[in-house]
Amino acid sequence: MKSLPNILTGSRLVMALFMFVALAASSGSVPYFADRLEPQTQFALQRWAVYAFVVAALTDFVDGWLARKFDAETVWGAILDPIGDKVLVCGAILGLLSLGPQPWVVLPAGLILFREFTVSALREVGAGKGVKLPVTLLAKWKTTLQLTALTMELIVAAWGAFSLPDGTPLRHGFEVAAHSLFWLAALVTLITGAQYWAQTRKALAG
To answer: Are 42 and 26 in contact (CB under 8 A)?
Structure first.
């Protein structure tokens, strides 16, 4: 039972890879599917990509809870967990952008990617100097916002795959909510990035 949290964390990486490949394939960006892509297959790939993302996102909340409940927190888990989060978020963003032009998504998506890679680099530099950057409460909320907003954005992008009514107030309202939440996630992401930058700078200066 104590190995379950690490298994869930590892499965998040696998599901993130599946989700990205499925979204890329649905957009015709995978050679094998490019000439065989029919609407029905395209919609199926998009649906399974969204399902995989939702399940993977849920493991992010469950694995940590299980690790604490069964006193199964390990160094390996501590390494894999943030990697799994970043791979899932970055994979979803890249897969989302592969589905076509999305003016309301591109800028916040780019800002989130910029922050994630920058903080990863800061952690690497800090680790080499013996500096640790603890995860803040706001950073945990940041991840929750990112995963929720990306779930909504993926549904918007794959709207037809779920046979949802098009050109209705429901879709318009859902799009507005998804875009607003995604921009909020980008803002919180940048704020946490600035906090980590300040912490690293202060630690290295000391």
So the answer is: yes
The structural architecture, per CATH, of the domain 4-205 is: Up-down Bundle (1.20)
Q: What parts of the chain have a pLDDT lower than 70?
A: 1-2, 33-34, 72, 206
Which residues touch 143 (CB under 8 Å, ≥6 apart)? 60, 85, 89
pTM: 0.92
CB 74 within 8 A of CB 4: no
78 contacts 153 by C-beta, under 8 angstroms:
no
Amino acid 144: pLDDT: 93
Distance CA 51, CA 170 (A): 21
- Gyration radius from the chain CA atoms: 18
Question: What pLDDT is stored for residue 7 in this prediction?
Answer: 86
